[in-house]
Each structure stands twice: as structure tokens, then as C-alpha cells.
Amino acid sequence: MKTLIKILTVFLFCTICKAQQTEVSVIKYEDLEKRIQQEKAELLVVNFWATTCAPCVKELPHFMEVNNKNDSNPKFKMLLVSLDRLADKERVLKFIKNKNLTAEVVLLDDIKRMNTWIPRFEKEWDGNIPVTLFYKNGMKVHFNDGEMSKEELEKTVSDNLQ
Q1: How far apart are CA 121 and CA 45, in angstroms?
Q2: Is the pLDDT of residue 9 over 50?
Q3: Which of 43, 103, 111, 122 has the largest CB neighbor count within 10 A?
Q4: Residues in domain Thioredoxin (predicted)?
């Protein structure tokens, strides 16, 4: 019995360590665009958020539930794009740990060119966050402006994974 408990403890520890990032990649718009185009997942969910955005923080637990439900599916990938300032990178890392974010998080350090890259992602995007884009086989299939409920998120994912 003690051996079983030790094995389960080690497994749980490894799972937790694997699930959380210890570093956040800092990228520019072009890198993110290339990353989206090269993603192998059939459905890619890209959520733009910030630690200082109350609706963003409110919806993130729903995103983690959906991510955890689908993370073993090779056709599914979730990417959280933080729009926090580069100077706040440590706060973002602490936030990832405290909120137990299991999806990959990148920090988009390209605020000065927002008026250039925002319309390239979506013409209807006015710059407010949260915003979530859904790509199916590299093509954008859905744009959600504002906070998503768990039900909306689950339905959009389900509809596009079929």
C-alpha cells in the first residue's frame, strides 16, 4: 500500500510540474502569426487576455476546464496570448502558477504596433479584450469579442472538432 501511495504521489507531482509553465515566451506579432499558421492541431483556440483585465480573469477557469478536457486530443490546442507589458512578465508567471493555467501562455510584446496587427487578426476587433479566435486547419472559423461563458466555449470547440 505504501508503494502505491508513493507511486501516486510521484505521478501527481510530475503531472503538476508538467502542467505549469516555468517560463513565458516573449514574441512579436509576426512570430504569433507564423505560429498560428504552422500549428498542426485541427482546432486552435487563441485567447487574448491580460492579468489586469477582470473579464479575462473571470473566463480563464472555463478555458482551463475545456483545455484539460481536450488536452489529450491531438486535434486540439489552446494558446493564451497575454497582452501584459514585458515589464510585467514575472507577474504573468506568478499568475500562471496561482491560477493553475495548463494551456500554453505566450507574452505578445508588440503593444506599439497594435493598430497594425489587431485588424490583421480580425477586422471587427476594436482592441478590447478578452478576444478569442478559433482556427480550424489554419483557417479562422470563429471570432468571439468579449467574455465567453463555459457553455459558449464548449459549444464552439465541440462544433469545430467534428
Answers
A1: 13
A2: no
A3: 43
A4: 2-162
